[in-house]
Amino acid sequence: MTETVAGTGGIEADVDVARANVLQVDGSDAGTRGLRLDGLSAVLGRHRWLLFALVPGVLVPLIVSLITGGLSIPHNDGWAYSRIAEHFARTGHISLLGWNRSALIGQFIVLGPLAASITIQQTYVLALGLIGLVCVYDLLRPSLGERNAGITALMVALWPGFGLLDTSFMTDVPAMTAMFLCMALGRRALERDSLVLFALASAAGFWGTTIRAQALAAPVALLAYAAFTQRRRTRVRLLAVAAIGVVFVLGFAVFNSWFEGLPGGDLPPYKLVPSLLDTGMESSLQTYFTVALPAAPAVFWVAKPHLWRRPAQITALVTAVLAILCLHDFGRRLFPGNYLAQDGAYAPASIGGGMNVLIPNGEYFVLVVIALVSGSLLAGLIVHKAARADRLVAAFTLAFTAGTIGTFLLSEFMYDRYLIEILPGLLAVALLPEPARSEERAAARFAMPAWAGLAARWTQRGTALVAGAVVAVLGLALLTSALVSDRARWNEAVSLQSKGVPAMRIDAGLEWLGMHAPNGVTNRNAPADTRPMSFFTNTPACYVVSESSKAWVYPWTEVKRTDYERYLIGGTAHLYVWATHAEGCDS
C-alpha cells in the first residue's frame, strides 16, 4: 500500500498561489483586478468537480427548501432535536424528550442562543453539509486527484436523501461532517508533523461523538493510524498520540456517563439480536448493496473487468452470485429504507403516509438491479486496486462499517442514512488510477478492432451517465415530495388550530405532534396501529391530516381534500382532513 506524499497541500494552497501572483504584478487597478479574477478563475477551474458536487448537495436543497418553506418547520425525527435545542437556547438547560437515541448535544451547543430558531438550526446543518463535502474532497484529493475526489463528493451529494438530511435538523450530516473534518485535519497534521492540527483533528472527532456515537470511528482510526504508521518524523506519534488518546478516552467516558444520566433519554437497547449470523449476513449485504447504488455512476464509468487479474474477476463473479441470491431473498427489501423507500422518505411518520407509492414496482426493481450490478463490479474494483489504497481512509471505512453493523447486531434500527460515510471509502479505492501494465496485459489477451473498443468505451460511459441520471432524479424526487408533503400537512394543521382545535387533538404526523406534545414521548413502544399519536398521548385525535384516501376501519368523515403538486412542479397528490368523531370532539 502506498502512502500519500507529504506537502501535497490543499485548496488554500491554490488560493495562496493566486494571491501571490496578484501581489507580484505592478500596474493599473484594472490590471490588478483582471489578474485577481484570472487567479480566482484558475482556482475555481481546478476545483470545478467540487463545485459540481455542491450543486445537488447544497444549492438545489436550499432552493427547494426556500420555495416550500421547509427550512422553517421540523422534519422526521428532527422535531425532538429542534425542541431540545430551542429549550437550551432559551434556558441554558438540556431537557430530553424521549426521542433522541443520538447523543445530539454537540450539534446544537455551538449555536448557543441562535438555536432558538428552527430556520437557523436547519440553515446551520446545510452549511455543515457544504463543509462535509469539502472535507471529503480534501481528504481524498492527495490520492485521487481533483477530478476523482470531486466525483466522490458528487456521489455523496447524490446519495438518495442527502438533500433532505442537510436541510433538516437531523444528526446525520453534522456527524458526517465532524468525521471527515477529523480525518482531513488529521491527514494534514501527519503530513506537516503538526501537533496543533492533530489536536484540532482529535477535537473534531470528539465533537462528532457528542452528536452521534458512530463518529467514534474517525478519531479511533486516526489515532491508530498515527500510532502504528512508520514515519521519519515521530513527534506526532508515540507520546503525543498516547496523551491525546488518553484525554479523548476520558472525555468520551465522562460525556457518555453524564449524557446517559440525563432524564428523558432514549438509550439504545444494547441487546444482542437472537440470530447473530443471520442478522450479520443480512445487514452486511443490505449495507453493501445500498451503498453500491449511489456509487453506481462512478463504478460504471471506471470498471473494466477485462483489465483485472484473476482474483478481482473471481471476486466480481462471486459477488454477482450473491447479488442474485439477494434479489431472490430480499427483492424490494434490499434497501433498509427510511429515506430510500417506495413510499417516499420517512413516510410512516404520518398516518397513511406509507400507503402512497412514490416509486412504482418497475422503477424500484431497476434501482435494485443497478445496485446489484454496481456492487458486483465494485467488489472487483476494490480487489483490483486494494494494494494501493489509502490506509488512513481504509482504516476509517473499516472501523465505521464494523461499528455500524455492530450496532445493528445490538438491536439498533437499520436505516439507509446511517451508511453514507462508507461511500467515500469505497470510491477512494475504486477511483484510483489503473495499475501499471493493466492496459498492456489486456491488449495481449484481448485483441479487438479499434471501432469495437470505441463502441465498448462509449457504451460504458453511456451506462454510467444513465445511472447518474437515475440516481439524481431519485434524490430530487425524494427531496421535493417530502418537503412539499411536510409543508402541506403542517399548513393544514395550522389552519385547524386557528379554528380553535387544540394542537394535540390534531394528528398531522410525527413532527406536528412532537413539537406540540407538552411532555414529549410518553410511550416509546406504542402500538403500531395507533402511531404516531400514541407515542405522545392516549387522548384520541379529533382530526387526522393524511395523504391516504382511505378511512380504514374507522368511522371517519372526510372534511377536506387539498390537491398539490407532489414534486413541486408536477405530479398531483392529495391531502385529506378526516374528522374522527372521537369522544370530546365537536366534529
The fraction of residues in strands falls at under 5%
**Shape annotation:** globular
**Which stretches of 5+ consecutive residues score pLDDT under 50?**
1-13, 17-23
Residues in helix, %: 55-70%
- Secondary structure: number of strands: 4
Biggest beta sheet summary: 4 strands, mixed
- Secondary-structure element string: HHHHHHHHHHHHHHHHHHEHHEEE
Calculate the mean pLDDT score and round it. Answer: 89
Q: What is the distance, rounded to the nearest whole angstrom, between the alpha carbons of the first and last residues?
A: 71 Å
Structure in a nutshell:
The protein is mainly alpha-helical and 587 residues long.
Commentary on this structure:
A 4-stranded mixed beta sheet has the order 1-2-4-3. β3 (557-565) and β4 (572-579) form a beta hairpin. It is globular. The protein is mainly alpha-helical. α3 (48-68) packs parallel to α18 (450-498), α8 runs parallel beside α10 (217-228) and α13 packs antiparallel against α14 (361-385). Among the domains are: 11-43; 286-436, no CATH class; 481-579, no CATH class. The chain has helices spanning 11-23, 29-46, 48-68, 78-91, 105-109, 118-157, 162-165, 172-192, 195-209, 217-228, 239-260, 276-302, 310-329, 361-385, 391-409, 422-430, 438-445, 450-498, 510-516, 533-536, and strands at 506-507, 543-546, 557-565, 572-579.
